[in-house]
């Protein structure tokens, strides 16, 4: 039995899951992102305890490496790497765009290509396109609204479907399907498939997949 711990702190909530052979066994969520750092270890302990599985039974840690919240990604990555070091176990880095694409592919099987959109900041988006076999047609990129709109307008046909968060739907139109949160049920299977392929990351050198520069507000100098 292969047990994989799932850690996602990339978005508006923290999600911790535990899977066995690709099936989700248990999960827990925290909606207050302000206390992610203080509660994440307790969430992990509770998920394992409620599942009757010891941390030492874990075969791999799968973490959503981004894109997403800078602070959230650092918290999730630090926890995943810390546990992987302590247990001397495997680390799987999963891109959020790929995870969202994977669950949309399972739900909408009649499209050849799936475009995934995530709002980065006002007027800017993370974007990628995958085929039904999860091959990257367009690797994850960070583009402004005009570049994304141009691509969407030129590629809306019966072979491709676009999915994104609520802001993306408002910006690019109702043809965009809504998806913003990672479904751990699908992630459990995705992580298990990567585990079987031995798609492991280097624990020492692994970093979050930010995809954009840090935006820092600077105080105006006094006149």
Strand content: 25-35%
Radius of gyration: 18 Å
Give the CATH superfamily of the largest domain.
ATPase, nucleotide binding domain
Which stretches of 5+ consecutive residues score pLDDT under 50? Answer: 214-218
**CATH-defined topology of the largest domain:** Nucleotidyltransferase, domain 5
Helical stretch count?
Answer: 6
What is the CATH-assigned architecture of the largest domain?
2-Layer Sandwich
Structural class: alpha/beta
Number of domains: 2
| CATH class annotation of the largest domain | Alpha Beta
Bulk shape = globular
How many distinct beta strands? Answer: 10
The major β-sheet equals: 5 strands, mixed
Query: What series of H and E elements makes up the topology?
Result: EEEHEHEHEEEHEHEH
Strand order of the largest sheet: 3-2-1-4-5
Task: Estimate percent helicity.
Answer: 25-40%
Chain oligomer state: single chain
Quick overview of this protein structure:
By secondary structure, this protein is of the alpha/beta class. It has helices at residues 36-51, 70-87, 96-107, 145-155, 166-172, 184-196; strands at residues 3-8, 14-20, 23-30, 60-66, 90-95, 113-121, 124-131, 136-144, 160-164, 177-178. 35% of the residues lie in helices and 30% in strands.
């Amino acid at each position: 039995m292969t047990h994989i711990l799932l850690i996602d702190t990339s978005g508006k909530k923290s999600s911790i899951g535990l899977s066995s052979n690709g099936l989700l066994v248990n999960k827990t969520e925290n909606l207050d992102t302000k206390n992610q750092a203080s509660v994440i270890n307790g969430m992990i302990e509770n998920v394992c305890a409620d599942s009757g599985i010891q941390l030492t039974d874990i075969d791999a840690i799968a973490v959503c490496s981004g894109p997403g919240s800078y602070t959230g990604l650092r918290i999730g990555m630090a926890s995943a790497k810390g546990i992987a070091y302590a247990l001397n176990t495997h680390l799987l880095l999963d891109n959020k765009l790929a995870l969202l694409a994977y669950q949309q592919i399972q739900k909408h099987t009649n499209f050849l290509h799936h475009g995934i959109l995530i709002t980065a900041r006002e007027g800017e988006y993370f974007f990628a396109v995958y085929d039904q076999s999860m091959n990257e047609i367009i690797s994850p990129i960070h583009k402004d609204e005009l570049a994304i709109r141009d691509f969407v307008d030129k590629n809306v046909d019966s072979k491709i479907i676009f999915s994104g968060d609520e802001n993306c739907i408002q910006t690019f139109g109702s043809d965009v399907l809504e998806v913003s949160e990672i479904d751990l049920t699908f992630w459990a299977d995705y992580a298990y498939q990567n585990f079987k392929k031995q798609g492991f990351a280097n624990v020492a050198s692994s970093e979050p997949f930010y995809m954009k520069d840090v935006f820092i507000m600077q105080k105006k100098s006094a006149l």
